[in-house]
Amino acid sequence: EAGVAQSPRYKIIEKRQSVAFWCNPISGHATLYWYQQILGQGPKLLIQFQNNGVVDDSQLPKDRFSAERLKGVDSTLKIQPAKLEDSAVYLCASSLPGGWYGYTFGSGTRLTVV
Amino acid sequence: AQSVTQLDSQVPVFEEAPVELRCNYSSSVSVYLFWYVQYPNQGLQLLLKYLSGSTLVKGINGFEAEFNKSQTSFHLRKPSVHISDTAEYFCAVSEIASYDKVIFGPGTSLSVSP
Could you tell me the CATH number of the domain that includes residue A85? Predict the structure, then answer.
């Protein structure tokens, strides 16, 4: 089966600019997650979708970050305006409903804010 | 709320030596436990998972982990490592009935030398 697709792979922007990341999950996976992974740290959950509804966005900095999952398939994560501390790898993952399946991750988007 | 501790940030070993990567978790309810591996510039890949039943779990690439409820641990082991096992390893926990939310540890960098 095809994996989780993410684009772009790399992005360099200046602070205060905006950026968007795209994710297409595995077909049939109702649950989609966006994680932020800062260098040297474990992934931190930003937002979790179940179909096209938000289940958990408690760790999403809503003053600058937004995410949507229209039609319950692919998803977009946006940052506007970006700060230096947003430099990280943004990982998208998907899974079947139920915590026991484990996640399938995409390769991530490495964002550098200069 | 659940949390994960990985006691060793870096583990250097020689090829064909055994290795153990330690993981402890904190939770007030029953949990699912996972180990993921991340190769350079890639997303995370599921190594193995503990859901219930036998406390010794076998995964891919010759890895295994043992769940110890009394010590709230889930240590990862391999009897003989290869150069290709060099990667970042993340322990993760999900509280049962937490809407599939998974919390990751900070990671352990395994470096295998010839």
Answer: 2.60.40.10
Interface A–B counts its CB contacts (< 8 A) at: 65
Q: What domain range includes position B9?
A: 3-113
Chain A positions contacting chain B at CB under 8 Å are 4, 31, 35, 40-45, 48, 50, 55-56, 91, 93, 95, 97-100, 102-108
CATH number of the domain enclosing B97:
2.60.40.10
Q: Mutate which of A23, A35, A105, A109 to test chain B, going by most B C-beta atoms within 10 A? A: A105
Which residues have C-beta within 8 Å of that of residue A61, sequence separation ≥ 6? none
Which pLDDT tens digits describe chain A residue by residue (114 residues)?
679 999 999 999 999 999 999 999 999 898 999 999 999 889 999 999 998 899 999 999 999 999 999 888 999 999 999 999 999 999 999 998 776 778 899 999 999 999
Residue A84 lies in a domain: yes
What's the burial of A110, exposed, middle or buried (CB within 10 Å: 0-12/13-18/19+)?
A: middle
Which of B41, B17, B95 shows the shortest CA–CA distance to A99?
B95
Number of domains chain A is built from: 1
